[in-house]
Design brief:
binds flavin-adenine dinucleotide, 31% helix, alpha/beta, D-Amino Acid Oxidase, Chain A, domain 2, FAD/NAD(P)-binding domain, 397 residues
Length: 397
């Protein structure tokens, strides 16, 4: 059996994995990143919407090569069709780009490669390797159909929502059914939408979640929805809900579907523990994703970068114990945890709200004078008019 030796093995070539690999390699660590698929960034399982402001924070320069559409604003549509349109000045940094994820993810992987990381495609982790004392010392994998072993001082689990690496290493990565959003999405063309506005349709169409229309230019868009797993009723699947909505919306009903994707996102504010002895979890594998919007690309990039920076420090002392990796835990919690908890509470509360109240909320926002629309400002308006909806987390608003 082929055996590889390195300082860090990163499992998963999504944004979290590539950023971790890049920052590890840049920090002088001998880094291997493995990806089970034959192509980074494909097939698509994402609506591809991101805001703009975090890109600078993780040192990614926007590039037209992987930007599909530069958004001018956003539209929020209530269950009975009241709309609230935000232009660029109001939408601020919350509205940004619709990406070409297959190119964005490849760009990040190429950056990791340029920094010195070795990337092994069609290589799937199958388990972890421990020494006689029980210490985690690497992973077993299957590479191009052959079993291999990769020995490393630390493992980065960047294996996305379906993550297994953390669990294999003995960490609790389980999710409550109530914290899982099941998603379905079509790439549609020939539809009559505003090409520069991302649209969010809340309430009835997608119980416990929302339906999105994220334009890709020329009458094309990612049209999808996320529904709380506990709210799927009568044997209906997310695709059924999506078809029902599309049939009723004359802007979409004549469109053509050219791609179908499905997937899941977690709706909790991150795992209680994201480090263990010789292991770090990043991005979706750590359940670090916005529980309200389901946006996780920026969280994956940030946590990947933090992991790479912390591992670089650990390499100086050779200590990759849980204790030594804790600065990673502190970094992401300091940066994101309050917002994740606030949005988790908001998600929980909004899942209980009926369509009439959602209609009311959109009308109320229409009448408000908020200058920049972001989740925080929207919740401030809600707090004023419906204090009961933010009870228990008003301090975070
Ligand atoms: C339908 C849908 C729509 C979404 N829309 C948006 C959006 O508009 N904006 C946004 O910000 N976020 C969105 N997200 C969430 C976003 O896609 C994720 O948060 C983001 O991709 C997380 O990055 P990651 O690197 O942690 O994981 P992933 O991108 O999932 O990458 C994990 C990688 O690990 C690989 N892998 C898994 N297991 C193994 C293994 N055993 N061995 C080797 N490789 C393995 C996978 O093949 C994959 O390439 C959406 C998610 C879904 C499902």
């Amino acid at each position: 059996m082929k055996k590889y030796h390195c300082d860090v093995v990163v499992v998963g070539g999504g944004p979290g994995g590539s950023m971790a690999a890049k920052y590890c390699a840049r920090g002088g660590l001998d880094t291997i990143m493995i990806e089970k698929k034959a192509e980074i960034g494909a097939p698509l399982r994402c609506a591809e919407g991101v805001s703009k402001k975090w890109l600078e924070e993780v040192d990614i320069t926007p590039d037209p090569a992987w930007i599909s559409t530069d958004m001018k604003g956003a539209i929020i549509r209530s269950p009975s069709g009241h709309t609230f349109k935000l232009d660029e000045s109001q939408a601020g940094n919350e509205v940004g780009y619709v990406l070409e994820r297959h190119l964005f993810d490849k760009h990040l992987a190429q950056e990791a490669g340029r920094a010195g990381a070795r990337i092994m495609m069609r290589t799937a982790a199958r388990g972890v390797i421990r020494d006689k004392a029980g210490k985690l010392i690497g992973i077993k994998a299957e590479s191009m159909g052959e079993p291999i072993e990769i020995y490393a001082k630390c493992v980065v689990a960047a294996d996305g929502f379906e993550s297994q690496v953390g669990r294999w290493a003995g960490m609790d990565t389980s999710l409550d059914q109530a914290d899982i959003l099941t998603c379905a999405q079509y790439r549609m063309s020939g539809i009559d939408i505003e090409d520069e506005y991302c649209e969010f349709i809340i309430g009835g169409a997608a119980p416990g979640g929302y339906l999105w229309i994220f334009p890709k230019g020329n009458g094309m868009a990612n049209v999808g929805l996320g529904i709380l797993a506990t709210k799927l009723k009568g044997g209906k699947t997310p695709i059924d809900y999506l078809n029902e909505y599309i049939a009723k919306d004359p802007r979409l009903s004549e469109g053509t579907v050219t791609e179908i994707s499905s997937g899941m996102v977690s709706g909790c504010p991150g795992l209680d523990e994201t480090v263990g002895d010789n292991i770090i979890l990043v991005g979706d594998a750590a359940r670090i994703i916005d529980p309200l919007t389901g946006g996780g690309i920026c969280h994956a990039c940030r946590t990947g970068m933090y992991a790479g920076k912390v591992l670089t420090e650990c390499n100086k002392t050779g200590d990759f114990s849980k204790e030594a990796l804790k600065p990673y835990e502190k970094m992401w919690r300091d940066r994101m945890e309050d917002k994740l908890i606030r949005n988790y509470m908001a998600k929980e509360r909004f899942a209980t709200v009926d369509n009439d109240t959602l209609d009311d909320l959109v009308l109320m926002i229409q009448d408000s004078d908020i200058s920049e629309v972001n989740v925080w400002n929207l919740l401030k308006v809600v707090k004023e008019k419906y204090p009961e909806l933010v009870e228990g987390f008003e301090d975070l608003i």
